[in-house]
Design brief:
Radius of gyration: 19 Å
Order of helices and strands: HHHHHHHHHHHH
GO biological process, one term: regulation of gene expression
Distance between the termini: 24 Å
Keywords: Coiled coil, Membrane, Monooxygenase, Oxidoreductase, Transmembrane, Transmembrane helix
Number of strands: 0
Mean pLDDT: 78
Low-confidence stretches: none
GO molecular function, one term: monooxygenase activity
GO cellular component, one term: membrane
Pfam families: AbrB
Shape: globular
Oligomer: single chain
């Protein structure tokens, strides 16, 4: 969304930019979680089915005594307040980043922030619906003129994600899942929501994705202006 709006200032073809950005987002969300899950299973030598992992996570959440419906209510209220603040500050991905920061502060101070697995799945469903709702007939028809750019974008971003992810894994203390998801070239909110389901550190992934979004929106347009001015 931010890049599509920036395209206006550079007199780029905004419809093509928006379409290619949508393809990038779909390819990232389709490839990164699948690849991360396979690496996570191999790295931990697990043959447990995904459904069994979900059941195990539910059992772990049920053992948490101090995180109940009241904690969930406080978490949602604080998250909404943070989202409203982010919306009116017009920060890149502000609604999510401010909500995340406020809830994180609440959890650091009280250790009572809580988001059950079932609700996370529902939120992911809404995220999928949001992406699907952006696809129109004109977008599909326009694909025939953008076959080569689409192929280059899909292959290029997938390779970049793998290379950067493994580089982070080797040079930092990130787990393999956390490194791969942190290196994801898009889908900040969606990837962050999937992180814990894929064995990654959710806060670390969200923080890295937030920094990426700030750089892309704040620095990348300046680089383009310098290169083409």
């Amino acid at each position: 969304m931010d890049i599509s709006l920036i395209a206006y200032d550079f007199k780029a073809n905004t419809s093509q930019v928006a379409l290619l950005q949508l393809i990038r987002l779909i390819s990232v969300i389709a490839f990164v979680p699948f690849f991360t899950k396979k690496c996570y299973e191999r790295n931990n030598k697990k043959n447990v089915s995904f459904e069994q992992e979900i059941k195990n996570e539910i059992k772990e959440e049920e053992k948490i005594e101090n995180k109940n419906e009241k904690s969930l209510l406080f978490t949602i209220i604080i998250g909404i307040i943070g989202g409203i603040i982010g919306y009116f500050t017009h920060l890149p991905a502000g609604t999510m980043s401010c909500s995340m920061a406020l809830v994180a502060y609440f959890n650091v101070k009280t250790h009572r922030a809580y988001m059950p697995l079932t609700l996370r799945k529902i939120i992911q469903s809404f995220g999928g619906a949001l992406i699907g709702a952006k696809v129109t007939l004109s977008d599909v028809i326009a694909l025939k003129d953008l076959v080569l750019p689409i192929i280059l974008i899909i292959i290029g971003f997938c390779l970049m994600n793998v290379l950067v992810g493994f580089f982070l894994y080797k040079t930092t203390k990130f787990s393999l899942s956390t490194a791969l998801l942190s290196a994801s070239p898009g889908g900040m909110s969606d990837i962050s929501l999937m992180a814990e389901d894929l064995g990654a550190n959710g806060p670390q992934v969200a923080s890295m994705q937030f920094l990426r979004a700030i750089f892309i929106v704040g620095v990348y347009p300046i680089i383009i202006k310098i290169l083409f001015s």
